[in-house]
Design goal:
Elements (H helix, E strand, L loop, with lengths): L3 E3 L2 E3 L6 E5 L6 E6 L3 H15 L2 H4 L2 H17 L1 H12 L3 H21 L6 E3 L5 E9 L2 E5 L5 H14 L3 E5 L6 H12 L7 E3 L4 H9 L6 E5 L2 H14 L2 E5 L4 E5 L5 H13 L9 E7 L3 H12 L3 E2 L14 H16 L4 E4 L1 E2 L13 E3 L7 H4 L6 E7 L2 H8 L7 E5 L3 H10 L4 E4 L19 E2 L4 H7 L1 E9 L3
The structure holds nicotinamide-adenine-dinucleotide (NAD).
Nicotinamide-adenine-dinucleotide binds next to helix 8 and helix 9.
């Protein structure tokens, strides 16, 4: 049974209640987590607040960085054990879970190394004045995270906050939170002072709502759905605190007639099957120039039909989806698309021998999808790809930007001028030219335009999100 991690201790929820943890590949319960409520959140925030004027607040940036670097080494030393845990908790294929653990370690390495390299400024001002700009931690940072990449999300959200000297309170998803809890044990072993990292598990409407409304947090960062993001931003507004939102996506892969089609097809498949399509930056819309539409779709369909959803150990293109509700939600999109008469161009399969109770959905390619159909506009968060033709560059821009989201875009063309024109016109936070990185790299600033959110994570920009600037003006005389 898993407990909360508060002030360096493992503690049960104040109510004594727990929530079951399901294995998505079988549907069976294999563990329990604490069902936290306001009292537990209060305890965690108080512990975080206390260490800011205690051991954690007194540490130098270099010491903070060394702790994060030690965490990286410990994660790598236990990489296989952690990957097995991540795969069990989320259902993802083992090779994906292994990659996720490597990325989590890389976040600790990157931000550990960067902790003492975010410097202030000296500003030339009037002769008898001395002006410096300091960068200080916000204080207590709250982190509410989703279930799709729990290990990576920990690295991406919590680690840069710690690097800048904040004390963090994390509410991971009730559907997948075991690797963040394992990272808490690793953080303690690496020497993180008690209270600098606190984890309260539980339901969003209980523990999540209590954390986002807590009067003593200084910044809140939320990754998840636009609907809950709106609630979190309202709670932040009530407290007048900063809010960083990383929300959904409906990212396009735009394939022009002069593209290297053999290369593009591999990325197109990977970008929608990775993590069963449960990736905010999944390439879920395939926009293809009319002149090559039939040829390229035939290439994609042939490869798509070979994909399968299987158990983590089968290590196929997809695992199961996270839970029954998500499976039913995705199946609903597929059923409604079929009912609307949209053609299934190719379908992968559910691998032979998967357990009956698992949440598997076969990868499905639809096309041509009408531009105003919900499949063309809404985030499915499953292995469902919508193909649509476009005529020319202008039409491609219009179509690529036609959703309320703006997270990523992939542009496939050999024309250098078109690459730059397209990159400049995409309303989204990352543009990939002749490549695509669902999830992006640790070093690469990441975040949304429009309803995909605001604020930036990853890279050095994340460190700037987690520190507040103070300008100190000193009159020192002649
Ligand atoms: P979700 O919004 O349902 O839940 C996210 C987190 O919010 C969970 O920890 C949940 O417990 C909590 N929560 C739920 N209700 C809450 C409330 N009332 N108050 C406070 N917290 C609450 O999202 P999900 O289903 O876990 O994840 C899928 C969504 O996340 C998709 O829309 C996906 O695109 C998005 N996502 C975005 C990014 C990104 O970086 N942009 C990354 C991963 C996932």
């Amino acid at each position: 049974m898993q407990k909360n991690f508060i002030n360096g201790q493992w503690v049960a929820a104040a109510s004594g209640q727990t929530l079951p943890v399901h294995d998505p590949s079988t549907g069976e319960v294999f563990d329990e987590i604490a069902r936290s409520v306001t009292e537990d959140v209060n305890h965690a925030v108080a512990a975080a607040r206390a260490t800011l004027s205690g051991a954690w607040g007194k540490m130098t940036a270099t010491e903070r960085g060394r702790i994060l670097s030690r965490m990286s080494a410990l994660i790598l030393a236990r990489a296989e054990e952690l990957a097995q845990l991540e795969a069990r908790d989320t259902g993802k294929p083992l090779s994906q879970a292994r990659a996720d653990i490597q990325v989590a370690a890389r976040y600790c390495e990157f931000y550990g190394g960067a902790a003492d390299k975010v410097h202030g400024q000296h500003i030339p001002y009037m002769n008898d004045f001395h002006v410096v700009v300091l960068r200080e931690p916000y204080g207590v940072t709250a982190h509410i995270l989703p279930w799709n990449y729990p290990a990576q999300m920990f690295g991406r959200s919590v680690v840069p906050a710690l690097a800048m000297g904040n004390a963090a309170v994390l509410k991971p998803s009730e559907d997948a939170c075991l690797t963040p809890l394992a990272f808490a044990a690793i953080a303690k072993e690496a020497g993180l002072p008690d209270g600098a990292l606190n984890i309260v598990t539980g339901l969003g409407e209980e523990a999540g709502a209590a954390l986002s409304a807590h009067p003593d947090i200084n910044l809140i960062t939320f990754t998840g759905s636009p609907e809950v993001g709106t609630l979190v931003q309202k709670a932040a507004a009530d407290s007048l605190i900063k809010c960083v939102l990383e929300l959904g996506g409906k990212s396009p892969q735009v394939v022009f007639e002069d593209a290297d089609l053999d290369r593009a097809v591999q990325f197109v498949i990977r970008a929608i099957t990775q993590n069963g399509g449960q990736t905010c930056s999944a390439g879920s819309r395939l926009l293809v120039q009319q002149s090559i539409y039939d040829r390229f779709i035939a290439m994609v369909a042939e490869r798509f039909a070979q994909t399968a959803a299987g158990t983590p150990a089968m290590d196929r293109e997809c695992g199961p989806l996270i839970n029954r509700a998500q499976k039913e939600r995705v199946e609903g999109f597929i059923r409604r698309a079929k009912d609307s008469g949209i053609q299934v161009l190719a379908q992968g399969k559910v691998a032979d021998g998967v357990p009956d109770g698992g949440y598997y959905v076969a990868p499905t390619l639809f096309g041509p999808v009408p531009r105003d159909h919900q499949l063309a506009c809404s985030e499915v968060f499953g292995p469902v790809l919508s193909a649509m033709p476009f005529t020319d560059e202008e039409d491609a821009v219009r179509l690529a930007n036609a959703t309320e989201f703006g997270l990523l875009a992939g542009i496939w063309t050999r024309d250098g001028g078109r690459q730059t024109r397209m990159a400049k016109k995409m309303q989204c936070g990352q543009v990939y030219l002749n490549c695509y990185g669902a999830g992006g790299g640790v070093e690469l600033p990441f975040g949304g335009y429009k309803k995909s959110g605001h604020g930036r994570e990853k890279g050095f920009l994340a460190l700037e999100e987690f520190c507040i600037v103070k300008t100190v003006v000193q009159y020192h005389g002649e």
